[in-house]
Amino acid sequence: MCFICPRPGNLLDHVMDLVRIVSLDGFGMKVNVFATPKTIQATVTLLENLHIILEKTPRDEIVSDVLPMLYNAFESSTLQVQILTQSVLISSTKESLTI
User: Fold this and answer.
1) Which InterPro entries match (predicted)?
2) The model's pTM
3) Among 52, 44, 41, which Cα is nearest to 16's?
């Protein structure tokens, strides 16, 4: 359990909680975790929060940081990660098309 956060989880879950609540102006932090997440759980956490990441990340950083993570996820040896990547990408595309 994290000392700051009341619920158990990995550090990336807590970082995503902070990203979710910070304003677009306050989201200036660049953490290079996208290109090659070290664990399957990190990849899953990033994919599950892709809609937030896309909403708060400048376009050039999406191209340089987020897209390589998606490419790597599609090439993952774990079938569940590949399926989640496809599902999340389709869902994020539908959301962006309806805006």
Assistant:
1) ARM-like
2) 0.68
3) 52
